[in-house]
Amino acid sequence: MEPSAFDTLFRALGDPTRRALFERLARSELTVRALTDGAGISQPAVSKHLAILKGAGLVLDRPQGRETHYRADPKGLAPLLDWMRLHETLWAGSFDRLDDLLKRMDQ
Amino acid sequence: MEPSAFDTLFRALGDPTRRALFERLARSELTVRALTDGAGISQPAVSKHLAILKGAGLVLDRPQGRETHYRADPKGLAPLLDWMRLHETLWAGSFDRLDDLLKRMDQ
DNA sequence: TTAATTCATAACCCCCTGGTTATAACAATC
DNA sequence: GATTGTTATAACCAGGGGGTTATGAATTAA
Description:
The structure is a homodimer.
Chain A: H1 5-14, H2 16-27, E1 30-31, H3 32-36, H4 43-55, E2 59-64, E3 67-72, H5 78-86, H6 95-106
Helix pairs in contact in A: 1-4, 2-4
Chain A binds a DNA duplex (30 and 30 nucleotides) through helix 4.
Organism (chains A, B): Sphingomonas leidyi
Keywords (chains A, B): DNA-binding, Transcription, Transcription regulation
GO molecular function (chains A, B): DNA binding; DNA-binding transcription factor activity
């Protein structure tokens, strides 16, 4: 069976290195070179991670000349919300924390 | 470096088989035997998945005689909320959907 | 007490994944 | 045009992870 959107999303976020890249891209758009500097791994490794993040819909690329700019895609996390909605009953205990999150986002 | 709580949680949820087990346990408490029937994999494989889910704090076990009952732990998903809070800015676009979720949980 | 059931662990295997280096394509600069 | 810089891909490799069967410990049933 082909992997679901949940699979690709969870798997993409499952790797710490990949999640670190995503978190950097959440703050600002960066080129592959900029991402490689400070990532502690080679440039091809970074490119592979970016391809996976892109495949999961977490990241968008913007080629410009010889460099490619990457940025996080807000819509990429939507399946996470969908999955949580499937398990609302589990959330009762965490409700107040989620409420806090919403309040902070609202202001 | 030792893996963070995020790592263990995301990795635990990253495997489809494991997520399926977790989803079944979200609905009702089940024994290893009950989980194995209908999982499509061997009993030792199920036990290993359960150990990983337990290690991630997603599941609680309750030994009773020769069988062990497992159930989902609501608090296990808390780190997911924490992680989302770290990236609130990314959420602007998904805000209304999260709002929907909260409304449905409130009723 | 003997047999059957349930579960966890050990030992093993294969494949997938995350890393590497090498290289090619393309763009910018000299 | 030649060179340098940026990125993606190919080829490869080591390790980890998810599966298996075998087995033992503990509990229940016969």
